[in-house]
Amino acid sequence: MNLKSALLPLAALFAYTAIAQKQAEPAMCRIEIYADQPGATISKDIYGHFAEHLGHCIYEGIWVGKDSKIPNTDGIRNDVVKALRDMKIPNLRWPGGCFADTYHWKDGIGPAAERPSIINTFWGGVTEDNSFGTHEFMGLIDMLGCDPYITGNLGSGTVQEMAQWIEYLTSDNKSPMTDLRKKNGRDKPWKVKYFAVGNENWGCGGNMTPEYYTNELRRYSTYLNNYSENRLQRIACGPNSDDYKWTETLMKDDGARWAMQGLALHFYTVPDGWDKKGSATSFTEKNWLRSFSTTSRMDELVTKHSAIMDRYDPEKRIFLAVDEWGAWYDVEPGTNPGFLYQQNSLRDAMLAAINLNIFNKHCDRVKMANLAQTVNVLQSVILTDKEKMVLTPTYYVFKMMAVHQNAKLLPSNIKCEQYKIDSDSIPSVSYSVSQSADGKIHLSVANLYASRDQKISCNINGLKFKKVSGEILSSARITDCNTFEKPDVVVPKGFTDFKINGNFVELQMPAKSFVELVIE
Ligand code: AHR
Question: Which class would CATH give 26-39+410-519?
Answer without folding.
Answer: mainly beta
